From TrEMBL:
Signal peptide: 1-24
Protein known as: PEPxxWA-CTERM sorting domain-containing protein
InterPro entries reported for this sequence: Ice-binding_C (IPR013424)
Residue span, Ice-binding protein C-terminal domain: 187-211
Length: 220
């Protein structure tokens, strides 16, 4: 009976995974900040508008950032595959030190998000591939965006990681290479939350085992 219970648990887990994988995943424009600075450059071209995304999976929507700046981003592409992502030290440090800055008073700020996108490109690509002048931006907030991006890149370089990550990472890749590869993060539960989760799992297992034993006694 215990084996049957374990088999049912495996089947249920596989069903949940399949249900999640079968959801149509697409990206949508999160915000369109006008950014242009001829003195700045991204891979040798004048730095232009950067666009964070909403990544939509079923009824859920999460903030996503491009980690593939050489591919044009196409909204509503649905053929995405998800996989875990192991960040480099600089990417991890950038998220640990500055990701929370995107939300001002808990509210999403599109200028801060644009700055974070530029900072992310700076730390995921070879040195000097993204050069951001802090003056000369054409539109309102352009200089502030460049300043924030440069500040956060430096903060990532200076950050002392204590071994306790705040985030886990998921990469979403366009399966036919028709759009950008994007990165999302989710908060890592606090130790107390992990403990409560393990207690819950243990209780479920205990109840299942107890039920199995009762069934065996009844059958006997």
């Amino acid at each position: 009976m215990n084996q049957q219970f374990a088999l049912k648990a495996v089947v249920l887990a596989a069903t949940l995974v399949f249900a999640q994988a079968s959801q149509a995943i697409n990206i949508e424009s999160k915000s369109a900040v006008l950014y242009f600075n001829a003195d700045s450059s991204i891979f040798g071209s004048p730095a232009t508008t950067v666009e964070p995304w909403n990544l939509v999976n079923g009824s859920s929507s999460v903030l996503a950032f491009c980690i593939d700046p050489l591919t044009w981003g196409i909204p509503s592409v649905t053929n995405y595959g998800a996989s875990s992502y192991a960040p480099s030290e600089l990417v991890r440090n950038l998220y640990e030190s500055s990701y929370s800055q995107i939300f001002v008073g808990g509210v999403y700020n599109e200028n801060k998000a644009a700055a974070f996108q530029l900072a992310l490109w700076s730390v995921t690509n070879p040195a000097n591939s993204v050069v951001l002048a802090e003056t000369g931006g054409v539109f309102d907030h352009n200089d502030e965006i460049s300043h924030d991006a440069n500040t956060w890149v430096q903060a990532a370089k200076d950050y002392q990681f204590n071994g306790a990550a705040q985030y886990s990472y998921t990469e979403y890749k366009s399966l036919d290479h028709s759009s950008q590869t994007v990165l999302t993060v989710s908060a890592v539960p606090e130790p107390e939350s992990w403990a409560m989760m393990m207690v819950g799992v243990g209780l479920v297992g205990f109840m299942g085992r107890r039920k199995s034993k009762k069934s065996e006694q009844f059958a006997a």
